[in-house]
Specification:
- With 55 residues, the chain is an all-alpha fold.
- It has one domain.
- The protein has four helices and no strands.
- The protein has helices spanning 2-15, 20-27, 32-40, 44-51.
- The relative contact order is 0.17.
């Protein structure tokens, strides 16, 4: 569940235009490869479809 929350957090920030470096810093990542993992774990269309149920 924590991974899903972190995916959601990272994806939401990225969608809002926040830089990958800033997202990585907020998530406490030591390098951008880890941040890329969170941003690439689920495609954007799936994210929108899934998240429409929580708004």
């Amino acid at each position: 569940m924590v991974k899903t929350a972190r995916d959601f957090y990272a994806t939401t920030l990225r969608r809002a235009g926040v830089s990958k470096d800033d997202i990585g810093e907020m998530l406490g990542h030591s390098n951008s490869t880890v941040t890329e993992h969170y941003l690439a774990s689920i495609d954007m269309e799936s994210t929108f479809e899934i998240n429409k149920h929580i708004f």
